[in-house]
Amino acid sequence: QVQVVESGGGLVQPGGSLRLSCVISGMTLDAAAIGWFRQAPEKGREGVGCISGRHGNKYYTDSVKGRFTISRDSAENTVYLQMDSLKPEDTAVYFCAVESRLLVTRRCLEPGYYGSDYWGKGTLVTVSS
Fold it and tell me: What is the average pLDDT value for the chain, to the nearest integer?
């Protein structure tokens, strides 16, 4: 059984930083695509960034390029989202998703790329002064 658990959310001032963690069990990162998504109130779920567990190629949505960085720790089966220069518009619940994939493309930014059972419950990030 695959389990996905996010942590690290919280309240941060504009310009600040947070690091989110996504711990995955039941699936090895070396054969997976891992994505970070966010959903703000009354908005749809948006792909933030994603990574190939095997090859390490990464993709980001334009609004976070240069500010957010995805990394993985295969030994810990954990994926991180380092968020710097945070803005109020980054406020959202952030979700992690995983899918078994050997070849990962930019489509990993789409929610439909992942099975419905392979999502975490999310962690809230609030950027406010």
Answer: 96
